[in-house]
Amino acid sequence: MQFATAATLIALAATSSVSATCLEQAPSALGFPINYDITPSRSDAVSFQIPPNSAGPCQLVAKFPAGYPVFSVGDDLVNVTALDGPAPGALVGSLRFRAGTTTVINSFGCRDVMAYELALANPDGNGEVSFSEIQGAGLFMEVGDCTIF
Ligand SMILES: *[C@@H]1O[C@H](CO)[C@@H](O)[C@H](O)[C@H]1NC(C)=O
């Protein structure tokens, strides 16, 4: 009986570790770093390739280690708009890019390709945001059961 109980617990532990799979997908790019520069006259686009049939959810996040160089001036709120999927053109979130923060922009059902536009929320302002994406800093799609914080 004791043995059966222990075996059951081991089986449960193994099951839960399998379901806790998480893929942190970086944007599609010809190379790294990916340089973003969002100004009143210039938006950027970001696109993710997601493994087919990913269970999801797919969470779009922006994460920067403390002290990471993010250049930002003026009215720097950025609107994130879907470029494809069920609602192209829909605003999916707004954020300010800041070192030392992780921001969940939105959560979606996963698709094979997921693309977004980044543009200043106030294009009549004097804001600008620029940063370089490297491993561990920038925009990512968290696929599956990811602990974000
Ligand atoms: C950004 O989103 C806000 C809504 O949160 C909207 O009022 C504003 O017009 C948007 N900016 C642009 C340039 O679409």
Automatic annotation (TrEMBL):
Protein name, as recorded: Uncharacterized protein
Domain of life the protein comes from: Eukaryota
